[in-house]
Structures are given as C-alpha cells and as structure tokens.
Amino acid sequence: MASWLPETLFEIVGQGPAPSKDYYQLLVTRSQVIFRWWKISLRSEYRSTKPGEAKESHEEFLENSHLQVQIALIFGARILDYVFNLCEGKFDFLERLSDNLLLNIISYLDLEDIARLSQTSRRFAQLCMSDELWEKIVQSACDTITPDMRALAKDIGWRQMFFTNKLQLQRQLRKRKQRQGSQINNKF
C-alpha cells in the first residue's frame, strides 16, 4: 500500500438496527480491519458483558463472510462495498483531497465538466454550487472586480452573477447604487 496514506483509512461508528441499543465501530487501517462492539442492555445477563473486538488483516476480512454480513447489517451495503475496495487496494484519492484543493482544481474545468462533476456525489454537488468556486471563476473571467460588484455578488451570489449577462448586471448595479443613495438621503 502507498506509504503516504494515513494510518487510518476509514472509520465509522453507529448503533445497531432497532431494537438493539448496541454500539459499533468499524476502523480500516493500512493493514487491518478492526470491528468493535459494546453491548448496551438493561437485562441482567448482559450487564457483565465486556466490549468485543475483531481484528483481521485485509486478506482475512475478504474471506470472512460472517463479519461482512454484520457490517452490512449495521452500516449498510455501501459501507461494506467501500471497505471491500479499501481492502483490495482501490482507493478514491479524490475523496481524500481537501475542499480548498478540489475547488482550485474544479475552477479550471469547463462549465459542462463542472455540471457533470456536480452529478457524481453530494460532496461534488456542494463544491460545484459553492460561492467560493464561482468567485474564483468570476475572478478568472473578469479583469477587475469592483467593490460594487462584490457587494452585488454578496446579495445575489457569485454563481448568479456569473450567469447574468452584462447588461442585466449593469442594470442591477445601477439599481443597487440608487437604493443606497436613497437610503442615505432618507437618513438626512
């Protein structure tokens, strides 16, 4: 496995399916899958039950169908698939990048590619709709951004500002200045 990966590749915690109150943790490291559980019950026969832990190498986990079924029941099939991919050495490196770095990369894409990327996951949808991204895109498209333009972008959002044609933008800036002027006059 790549040595620059963090020791902990994935971690999730959760409660077992109803009516269970048991608590579970799944931890995937570079070399192991660790499954921990805590029995939580008011019944007297379970009060002395100690927490449990199962540690297996990635190869052992891929062979252990009993543990796989438990993980699927508690955390769902998508989590099980993700853990399988990690154990097989299939990493989603884009998921590991910070939002700021991804925003920088996305800002260089064409508009069609940004639209397609936004449909791939919730995280990318949020990034592709974020004001930070559209501010970068507007800044790269415009020579200068005036304080009035910034104020308007704060009101309507950078994305809306990008897709507004130049005439409409000038009209909105003019209306904004007039409103500010009338507010100042009303104060006196």
From TrEMBL:
<dbReference type="Pfam" id="PF12937">
    <property type="entry name" value="F-box-like"/>
</dbReference>
<protein>
    <submittedName>
        <fullName>F-box only protein 36</fullName>
    </submittedName>
</protein>
<dbReference type="InterPro" id="IPR036047">
    <property type="entry name" value="F-box-like_dom_sf"/>
</dbReference>
<dbReference type="GO" id="GO:0031146">
    <property type="term" value="P:SCF-dependent proteasomal ubiquitin-dependent protein catabolic process"/>
</dbReference>
<feature type="domain" description="F-box">
    <location>
        <begin position="91"/>
        <end position="137"/>
    </location>
</feature>
<dbReference type="GO" id="GO:0019005">
    <property type="term" value="C:SCF ubiquitin ligase complex"/>
</dbReference>
<dbReference type="InterPro" id="IPR052301">
    <property type="entry name" value="SCF_F-box/WD-repeat"/>
</dbReference>
<dbReference type="InterPro" id="IPR001810">
    <property type="entry name" value="F-box_dom"/>
</dbReference>
